[in-house]
Structure formats: C-alpha cells, structure tokens
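S.,

Sequence below, as promised.
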Amino acid sequence: MRTIEEHRDAVRALVAPVLPGASAPAGASVPPGVSVVSVASDGASPSVLEARRVDDLAADTGAGHGYRVLGRAVGSPIPLPPFDNSQMDGFAVRAADAGATLRVVAPVAAGAVPPPLPVGAAAPIMTGARIPDGADAVFPVEQTSAGSFPAALSLASVLVPADVEVGTFVRATGSDLAAGAPVVQAGAVLTPAVLGALAAAGVAEVGLVRRPRVLVVSTGSELAGADGAVADAAGGSGAGAGASGAGINDANGIALRAALAEVGVESRAVRVPDDEARFLAALDGAVGGWADLVLTTGGISAGAYEVVRQALEPRGLVVSPVAMQPGGPQALGTVELAGRPVPVVAFPGNPVSALVSFEVFLRPVLAAAAGMPAERPTRVLPVATAATSPEGKHQVRRGRVDDGLVHFVGGPSSHLLAHYADATHLVHLPVGTASVTPGDPLTVWSLR
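The prediction came back faster than expected:
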C-alpha cells in the first residue's frame, strides 16, 4: 500500500498541470503506471481568463465561494490619492504662516474644487477635501478657540499653531500609489482590500484566472437523487429510494460539490449505474470540452460490480490502496474521455471515506490553486478518551475540541456521515499507533 504522502504527491502531480493558470509541481512523485497530462499553462492566456466587473466580485470572493486569482497585473490609471487632500477636519494654510493670525475665508467641502487660497488667509476644510492651491498644510479644528465644526465656521480669524510644517495632515497625491504603478500583480488573490484598491483606482473590470471545473461522478445502481430517481432505472430515472426499498440517497454528489465550492471550484454532477457502457457514455457526454478533472466515488473496490475500475482501468486508471482508514481504496490516472486526455481521481463510495479522501488528497492542491492556504489549521492537542487504531494504517477520526482536549465524535466507520456532520475537526492517528490513552497528543485539523 502507498503511504498518504505518496498518494497525495501523485494526486498533486496529476491534477496541478491542468488547473487554469497552474503549472506542473516540481519534485512531485508519480507512481509507476500513472500517466500525467502535460499542459502548457499561461496565466495570461485568454483561454484561462474570464473578465469580471469589480463591483460584481464583491459578493463572490468570500467563504463558500473560494478566492479568485488575478490573471493579469492591473496598473492604476490614476495616482492614489488623485489629489492632495486633507487628513482631518481643520484649516488649510501655508506652513510659512505658522504662528500667525489669519483671516478665515470660505470653507472647502469634500468633493468641491476650491479656489486658490488667498495670501494671509486660512480656509476651513473637511476630511478628504481637496487642498486649495497655495496651501501646503492643515491644522486640526480642535486647535482653534471654537474647538469643532460647525461652530468654527463663524470664526473671523484663527491662530496657526507654531509647529505646523509643510505636509502636516496632508495626504499627498500618489502617496498610496503612483499613476501607472500596479494596483495588483498577476496571481494576486482578490481579498477585500485588493477589490477596494481596484475600485479606488477606477478599475471597472479585471481578468481573472477562471475557476477549475470538476465533474463529480457518483456511481452505483442503488443511488437516488433529491428527486428520488434511482441511477439504475431505464433512461437514468425511475422509482425513488423510498419506493424501491433498495436505493440509498446520494450524499457524495452534494457533499463533494459543496467541498469543491469552498475552494473556488465550479462543478457539475452525474449519477451513473453499475453498467460499463452507460457509465462511459455518461462520462463522455458530461466531460465534453468542459471538465478539467473528473472525480468519481465508488466502484474501485474488490466487488463484482466495480464500474469505475472495470471501465477505466484498461484506459489508464491505476487502482492502488493507501494505508489510510477510512479511504483505503484509491485510484487515479489520465483517461481518454470525450476524445481527449482527462485526469481522473477516484475515491471510495462510502460518504465519510469520500470526504476524508477529499480533505487529505484533493483539497490541498485545489486550495493552493485558488490562492487559499493548502493546509487546514492544525494543532497538536491531548486526547480526552482512549481509542484503538489499525497499527499499519493512518486512521482519520472525527472529533471536536473542547477545553483544549480532543473528543472523538462517533466511531471510525466510513458510513457515519451524521457523526462527521457533528464534528469540527479531523483527528489523526498515524501509522504505527495501535492505541491512544487520555492525554496522548494527537494532530487535529480544523474543519470550521
């Protein structure tokens, strides 16, 4: 059996080259027999860019959608700030008049273009308002006898503090960004601050690296969708799980699409029965020219109806167990689908196995491509209760952290999806661990 690290490297080497704007990872090991699609990717290529309006992106970059990555550098069409403006509410003056008493002229509001400042005068000015020509400093309204606006607007004269210097409380033109300087570089993640900087520079549209596209394939003649249609029925629809008594609802398609969305991946889903011809036809039709990657669940174990293994192993899929529980059965490889080579990653069919496999093997490479941290937040904490683990496998349990202790949620079995839903952490019992006792340190990954 492969180790977790070996299989993770293999998945990364297979998937990374086909992600939009990505390049093949350096030094990643590929097991014998696994072919890897070689794609010359260019982050500035129109084929991997999508134009998006900056104002539309404000609601499309946060949790649940993954981050977006800029495809091209964007230069600022204007300096930021675009003109000298006041850092606070006060009076615009000449620094050369420090210590002098000046007459007060008309105030300067934000958004107005003021006339030049007369000699021997001070102009009331609001925060963000343009500095009048002739003025080169601002002193705060709090330093006047009135103390605040609007009372200070009635002053006939003001005394300029003696410590006023050129540039005092003035935001200089271009002090944040010079005209033509890059607002953001290619490959930058669209954080709220980046979007704000683009908006401030007047950039209306940017080119983003398009999201990866993954086809999620749930296999099994017993699977039913939300509409109750069972995958094995003629034409792909038929009696629901409740009617037949032999069907089960497809959790994998929904759960994995949600997991993919968290790392900025577009997805589509199909359910296919345990029939090779229909399976291959469904894949060819759904992959088309759209999918960058195919992710299957089920059909790779040692049963009599392992449709993924039977249909794709002759085409290049390599099935190899991994020393992990749950999620031992794994497969991957480059497969000819819809007339082109497509990377395929195959997970087991039990829902906890599929989700754990995603967290361990696929999420890191997809998250990194989206500009997100590749690893979940990780800590080492003492366990609250005893547990056993197969010594030759890396066991991944579900748990919660309370009062600095790790508490297991449910057992290790791969069908306990409701227990997974109640968990906040994945708990790792590494190879060589036969048992743990209260107080033993374990590595935990935070899921939320």
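Residues 39-46, 233-244 have pLDDT under 50 and may be disordered.

Coffee later?
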